[in-house]
Amino acid sequence: MGDEGYNVDAVHMAIVLADYGVLSDSTWVGQKFGVMDAFAEASSIIGQYGSLYHRHGDLLMSLEYYVQAAAAVGGGQLSWSGRGNIDQQRQRSSMLKQLLTELLSRDGGIDILLGPRGTGEEGQLGRFLTDEKTRQQFLLEAARQYQDAGLYDKVIFSFFLLYSDMNKLFALTCVVRHKT
Predict the structure, then answer these.
(1) What gap in Å lies between CA 115 and CA 34, rounded to an integer?
(2) Domain ranges (residues) in the chain
(3) Phi, psi for 168 (deg, rounded to 5)
(4) Which of 10, 47, 133, 175 is the most buried (most CB within 10 A)?
(5) What is the pTM of this model?
(6) 20 φ, ψ to 5°?
């Protein structure tokens, strides 16, 4: 994947420019509705490059580019420290959860994000969603998206990760099977 030449350089330049806040997040006079700002453009470039790794099954490398894409749409490095504006932080959080959900659905995604035992302590998810309640909320939202998409095996497994109590899991499994 390193044979793309200038495309690789463009991705890494986009990461640096977004991280250091060189890109302008303000709108210019006459900007048309629906036109992406510089942060969104950089994020799109970075995310597309990360999706190449995703398609080739290198989920760990894909994760790193996806995180950079989310940071870029959130205004760069400032969005991680809480110094970015509220809208940018919301965009970063939303995009990050969307991309993490995409990774979680892939074979091997659970091992990378939640660790080999699926508990979350050893996985990469804790780097980005630091408290347990946020991680549980993320898994619940992911399960809802999987259910909406008809991926019932992913729903059951997501709930299994959420609830260690087998009685709750059994009840949820019955509900999911009833809907199919």
Answers:
(1) 39
(2) 2-117, 131-180
(3) -65, -40
(4) 47
(5) 0.75
(6) -90, 10
